[in-house]
Amino acid sequence: MSGIIRAYKRDDEGVLHFREAWYDDEDQQFVVNHGVVGHQSKTDEANVDDDSAVDGLMAAFAAQCEEDGYAEIPESEQFWVVAQIALKTKDGTERDRHLERKAKAALTGELAWRGLGIVDRSEIGNGHLNIFCLCPDVNKAVNAIKICVRGEDLDFTKLTVAAAPHSDPTAFRVKHSPKQGVGFTL
Hints:
By secondary structure, this protein is α+β, with helices and mostly antiparallel strands. It folds into 2 domains: 4-67; 75-176, ACT domain (Alpha-Beta Plaits). Helices cover 25% and strands 35% of the residues. It contains 3 helices and 9 strands, in the order E-E-E-E-H-E-H-E-E-H-E-E. It has helices at 54-67, 94-112, 138-151, and strands at residues 4-10, 16-24, 29-36, 42-47, 79-86, 118-125, 128-135, 159-165, 173-176. The protein has a 5-stranded antiparallel beta sheet with strand order 6-7-5-8-9, covered by helices on one side. The chain has a 4-stranded antiparallel beta sheet with strand order 1-2-3-4, covered by helices on one side. Strand 3 and strand 4 form a beta hairpin. The longest helix has 19 residues, at 94-112. This is WGR domain-containing protein.
């Protein structure tokens, strides 16, 4: 077993919680990250002296999640949230490629540490940088993206955010735009 295990659960009040675990082979640590979706998570690390123990730790984590009512949210039940930043040229420049790397890194951290999903991919074209995120909660993801873009000096005035169900990636609806009434195209 490798990679990351990510599971979610709604409490009695309907609040979505998450737990995730992975093995950091660089630091030789088993890492468990958990919290309320949309809020900064708490992280616990345990040193692992023997790499062969990792599969057992991952299996035990998965079993504990299942026992506690946590489950993976299938992609089909999640949403595409696209952070779109307007560029000055149609196909982008080297400066825009730098912006793409910086924005992807910033959004990856912002979403991950709050249980808000993953950055799936990015593309430059048609005068835009589009960063595709797969998220379990649209509204909280949109708020996190707006906060991240402002905090990273990524020109908030050029940001549009749109969302669509994973199962219908053509049904994007604008959730944030610098101009009212503007449509959304990829």
